[in-house]
Write a structure and sequence with these properties.
The structure is a single chain. By secondary structure, the chain is an all-alpha fold. It has 4 helices and no strands. It has one domain.
Length: 130
């Protein structure tokens, strides 16, 4: 599959994960009034699980060992999550930026970096397997 087409497909499917993240974030933040970073963290975890599952099947079409692949994605998020939580706290908490704007900024960085990580590290040569 052409890599531009694969990235386009990844972006479209990841939009559903973005909707899950923003919807659950709004629920936790607005309805339950949970602390901002708690709302963001739980919303992020929900979207990661969904995004991994749907993109493994439809974008990368990989039969690679799922637990091993999830462990690699977990490693990615061990780096991404603290950085994004820091950014969320710094911009929304300390600098009073709009919480939703900051979450969208993190969604954009997540999209670009996670696609690259999944394509090159998690799946590598094991894409488009039937």
């Amino acid at each position: 599959m052409n890599e531009y087409l694969r990235f386009f497909k990844y972006t479209l499917l990841s939009a559903s994960a973005g909707l899950i993240e923003m919807g659950s974030f709004a629920l936790f933040n607005e309805l339950f009034h949970w602390h901002y970073w708690v709302s963001y963290f739980i919303a992020l975890v929900l979207s990661v699980i969904w995004n991994f599952t749907i993109n493994r099947r439809f974008t990368f079409k990989s039969t690679v060992n799922v637990p091993k692949a999830m462990l690699k994605v977990f490693g990615y998020y061990c780096v991404f999550t603290p950085v994004s939580l820091w950014l969320e706290n710094e911009l929304a908490g300390n600098m009073w930026w709009n919480e939703y704007l900051v979450t969208f900024i993190n969604l954009f960085f997540n999209l670009a970096t996670e696609y690259t990580f999944q394509r090159l590290v998690v799946y590598g040569k094991n894409v488009d397997q039937k």
